[in-house]
Amino acid sequence: MAMLVVGSVAFDAIKTRYGKVDKVLGGSATYFSLAASYFTSVRVVAVVGEDFTADHENVLKRRAVDTRGIQHATGQSFFWSGEYGENLNEAKTNFTHLNVFENFRPTIPQSYQDSDFLFLANIDPELQASVRRQMSRARLVGGDTMNFWIQGKRAELEQTLRLIDVLLINDTEARMLAGESNLPQAANRVLAMGPKALVIKHGEYGATVFFGQSSGIGHHPFRAPALPMEKVVDPTGAGDSFAGGFMGYLASQGELNREVFKRAMFYGGVMGSFAVECFGPERLMQLTREEIDARFQLFRELTHLD
Amino acid sequence: MAMLVVGSVAFDAIKTRYGKVDKVLGGSATYFSLAASYFTSVRVVAVVGEDFTADHENVLKRRAVDTRGIQHATGQSFFWSGEYGENLNEAKTNFTHLNVFENFRPTIPQSYQDSDFLFLANIDPELQASVRRQMSRARLVGGDTMNFWIQGKRAELEQTLRLIDVLLINDTEARMLAGESNLPQAANRVLAMGPKALVIKHGEYGATVFFGQSSGIGHHPFRAPALPMEKVVDPTGAGDSFAGGFMGYLASQGELNREVFKRAMFYGGVMGSFAVECFGPERLMQLTREEIDARFQLFRELTHLD
Questions:
Q1: Distance to chain B for A81, nearest Cα, Å
Q2: What b-and-e string marks burial along A196-219, b requiring 16 or more CB atoms within 10 Å of the CB?
Q3: Concatenated DSSP letters of A144-212
Q4: B89 to chain A: which residues are within 8 Å by CB?
Q5: Residues of B at the A interface, defined by Cβ within 8 angstroms
Q6: Hey, of B205, B230, B234, which one would you mutate to test binding to chain A, going by the most A CBs within 10 A of its CB?
Q7: CB within 8 Å: B302 and A222
Q8: Shortest CB distance from A306 goes to which of B225, B259, B306?
């Protein structure tokens, strides 16, 4: 079933212990689309500037991502520069130039309205809500957010959370959103805000999905591992790639039962693990489903008892 | 097969968000022994002071732990006081009174010499080495250490690591010991120092075992989850309880193959999860094997795909 993602298509300058890149394609919607494209058909709504060329667009098109929803504006694209030290979960931002993204008002093309799955990547919660309202027929809505909105637009974010079925955030964000340091308790509080399921990402330790009572999926959480990686070249986009693998797999399955959610957690981890192997989204551009399923087996062997 | 543990039998004053206790039985050897006692016969070598009464000793004896190796000295027992804030992985120490522990020179009773399994809990690496040399017949030697020795007695610790088969430490200790922030790379460096296997404990995220080439157990690491716990009453002793469950299960099995190590990782997590449910080692005093195996199944369901 078709998946619509609304988020950023941007450029990044990144420095890690393995080197640096000056301007590579990035943005939440880029990582998400590429990762999800191995599981389902993907449509993107975003805004880019004049520095976004046909070559950049072809990165998405080659993965059969529908880019007709990308708006082209006068000026430069969103440009972020950051570097990672020993803590790969947190980048030091050198600068964030919003550029054309500052005036992003997402409009959903008519041809996208029948998308069954919707992912609201990390943008202003008011924009997320406006997109959600334009997509009343969506069967399952995933969403992301970040500290900036939790602290700066809390009321608006709480409105948006009522419109989201599955929220994907990290440990720090979950604790901040809930005002509670214990993760399972924090999860319960976030689920009480609206989402039917909450995926908390633990970086190199994997991720846990907690289900709300209204999910009909049962009370027990499920935890998927992350592969111990000897070489994390660039952690940028790992979370969005997780979301792409997770949501993409869900969209590829007819029924959304507990077993499907469990496998989606594994596929999320798998796509995140590929994303960090190269600078930018390069590794996600030319995977095969065979490589993905081979890594899925590695994840399984990492935690499964005979 | 019989297990000998050498470490501390002590008292703790502990404060957490769930309350406080002024003086409860504690110490690495206490938690380890109780946890391991559900899997195998356990013998303890430690030193205690005059405040260690027959009632305290009975806590161990009721679990059939052989306490003849506990030396009784004049003075008070090791007494630690600490409290936990939001970060349950790190206690704030109020005081550490070594007391009789300061002059601890472990001597292994003749009747313990035939122990097949040995666990060197977190004590001075020179003492660990002297115990190891007294136990030349031990079939498998596990060990623990901490930042204090990594920084303060590095050369002695490196000698000791050559005498240990399985080292169990946490993320911070592994990174510090290896001088490397990437965990799998850090694991390789630690394995090059001597141990055949390295268990790195990730607190609430579980633990990973890495195998050295000389282990004969294969190259791939194995990761066991930790149960998301809504109420961590007191994290003290969780690591020693993990070690007790892990080593105890190994000692209960004839063959030390990969599958046995994998299950040992799960049992380690299980015993750690019980330990944190009450202040001190109380929860470990009266478990049943049925409760333990029921929780083992919870751990399994937490991560297993159908």
A1: 23
A2: bbbbbbbbbbbbbbbbbeebebee
A3: ---HHHHHHSHHHHHHHHTT-SEEEEEHHHHHHHHT-SSHHHHHHHHHHTS-SEEEEE-GGG-EEEEE-
A4: none
A5: 86-87, 181-185, 187-188, 202, 204-206, 208, 210, 220-225, 228-232, 259, 262-263, 266, 298, 300-306
A6: B205
A7: yes
A8: B259
Contact B305 A220 (CB under 8 A): no
CA triple A231-A120-A300, angle to 5 deg: 40
- CA dist., res. B243 & res. A285, Å (int): 43
- What pTM, to 2 d.p., does this model score? 0.95
Give chain A's largest Cα–Cα span.
Answer: 58
Here the tokens at position B239 are 């690591």
User: Using CA atoms in the order A160, A164, A169, A171, what is the torsion angle rounded to 10 degrees?
Assistant: 90
Average pLDDT for A27-48: 98
Here the ipTM equals 0.92
- Rounded distance between C-alpha atoms, residue B222 and residue A225, angstroms: 10
Give contacts of B184 with chain A, Cβ < 8 Å: 228-230
Q: What is the CA radius of gyration of chain B?
A: 18
- pLDDT digit string, tens, across residues B187-239: 999 999 999 999 999 999 999 999 998 888 877 999 999 999 999 999 999 99
Distance, in angstroms, between A301 CA and closest chain B CA? 8
Q: How many CB pairs under 8 A join A and B?
A: 86
Q: Token digits for B139?
A: 């079939």
Taking only the tens place, the pLDDT of each residue in A210-237 is: 999 888 887 799 999 999 999 999 999 9
Is residue B132 within 8 A of residue B109, CB to CB? The reply is: no
Cβ of B302 within 8 Å of Cβ of A181? The answer is no
